[in-house]
């Protein structure tokens, strides 16, 4: 809770940040190498690969920088992923901005999800104070669109399988590039059934 309050206070202190924008058209050309996994328009078909369409450009930039940091530090820093470390290794700063701008400009395709667990909605919207679980909505918003200035990614409509994989990685401390360790703090309190329910609910958000 303290880490959440700190992050939100930082967000509140931001007034008019100068955000350098990438070139969408240049990013479209440069993203060809990414399309095999993430789709031509950022809507991946395989549920283990994330949809990038409509994601905040600044968040995408951070992830690419974190993959590069992991490569340079042997996995001690940033975000470690064998495939993405290789794919991001040769990207320049301008490449990163352009590709991120392109995917951010695309429209997310959200599949119709049936039989969404009520437990997932309850956890997402209200958390579980008895277990010290903060609601996901506090950072990611009621519709899962997150907050770009605060660094919270859009997660609504993402593949349930990908969300499940990431929550498990945060819980097992195999992914640790989250802001102030917030996702690790939350996920370590989640059971397997919690993660399954949350993943299904988040994937249904439009």
Sheet bearing the most strands, described? none
Radius of gyration: 17 Å
Order of helices and strands: HHHHHHHHHHH
- The number of helical elements comes to 11
What average pLDDT do the residues reach? 91
Shape by Cα distribution = globular
> In terms of per-residue confidence, which ranges show pLDDT below 50 for 5 or more consecutive residues?
8-18
Distance between the termini: 27 Å
What is the beta-strand fraction? under 5%
> Which structural class is indicated by helix and strand composition?
mainly alpha
Helix content range: 40-55%
Number of strands: 0
Give a verbal description of the structure.
The structure is a single chain. It is globular and about 45 Å long. It contains eleven helices and no strands. With 206 residues, the protein is an all-alpha fold. It starts with a helix and ends with a helix.
Record keyword descriptors for this entry.
11 helices; 206 residues; globular; mainly alpha
Layout of SSEs?
Blueprint: H1 2-13, H2 24-30, H3 35-38, H4 57-73, H5 82-88, H6 93-104, H7 118-126, H8 137-140, H9 160-171, H10 182-187, H11 192-204
Q: Can you describe this structure in just a few lines?
A:
Helices cover 50% and strands 0% of the residues. The protein has 206 residues and is mainly α.
